[in-house]
User: What shape does this take?
Amino acid sequence: MTEAEINAAFSEKVQRGMFAPIARFLTNADTAEDRMQEALALTWEMYKDRILNRGLVLDDGILVHACRQRAVALDRTLVRSGGTRRLEDAMDPRAYQRGRVEVLRLDAWVEDDSVDEGHPHQLGLAEEFCSSPERKLNSAIDLEDWLDGLSARDYSLLAGRMAGYELERIGHDLGYSVPTTCRRVKKLGLELAARAGVRIDLDKHRSGRTRHDVSDAE
Assistant: This one.
């Protein structure tokens, strides 16, 4: 038999429902379809290998039995981690079952009663409708590295600004004058902008300062 004939023969078995009874052994509704499809793929692989390499055509009973074994045994998978370090493959369903893998969904939304006006929080760093979150993830990793390199005072200063505190309050807590606090905030902002590749027009920034900014600097 040629590969085309083998594929056609196996497809005919699937289409007439020969493997359908196996579904009753898959009790987890969330994974049943995936397990069934993977078992069929593994059985097809075995079916083809026996014909091409051994000249042996397995009968339907053996194929159904083999498919059932592959469907219910979680260690039977198409993707293999090498077999040297068991349960350390994030794709191994057994790792999920035993709580060895944490799932962090980049596009997930979580409803929270504490959210204003019922708007959900978005988890992760992926942009809505973005085909690849790589840029956002790389930026977040770089930001964490930058934050880790800050002194305790600078970290507290940024935390205060993020919390919405005025420069006077932050300076008081850190033992800085308002002008010193203002200069430090500006310096950190420029460092972060340079690290992120954001161009800042300093002349425009100076001319566009508000009266509040000027009074703070004084």
